[in-house]
Sequence to fold (141 residues):
Amino acid sequence: MRNEIYPCLWFDGQAQEAAQFYCSIFKNSQITSDNQMVVNFELDGKKFMGLNGGPNFKFNEAVSFVVNCETQEEIDHYWDALIADGGQESNCGWLKDKFGVSWQIVPTLLSKLLSDPSRAQKVMEAFMKMKKFDIKALENA
Fold:
């Protein structure tokens, strides 16, 4: 038997709605089981569990999901979809969706730009002023 590690997200009665929302945003996604208390789903082939656990716990930025994006179109897609209907933008590629789950929508190019000693400082100064990442602006920094 293989040990499998995956997140369990605690919702206050919104697990099914959240799973449907996330599956509508990410490619290759599906709900794999649902018994009203627990909904299992996959986002781009990665397993998640949503639990209707009640109002005892709330999401916060201590845990976030990172979405690496190759293109500005991908960044725009995930950013716009995840902040829709009540999500909140934050700084440096961070946002909260309408359920309060934190996400980081990050260009894969960022780590390469930050590893270049001649550009790292200017790139960091540029992205510290951004909410949603702008790949062109990062490349031009």
